[in-house]
Amino acid sequence: MITNTLLIKLKERNNETIKKTKSMLLSMEGKIEALRGIKVQSDILHGASSYDILLITHFDSTEDMDAYLIDPVHVEVSKYIAGVIESGASVCYEES
Question: Residue by residue, what is the 3-state secondary structure of the chain?
Answer without folding.
Answer: CEEEEEEEEECCCCHHHHHHHHHHHHCCCCCCCCCCEEEEEECCCCCCCCCCEEEEEEECCHHHHHHHHHCHHHHHHHHHHHHHEEEEEEEEEECC
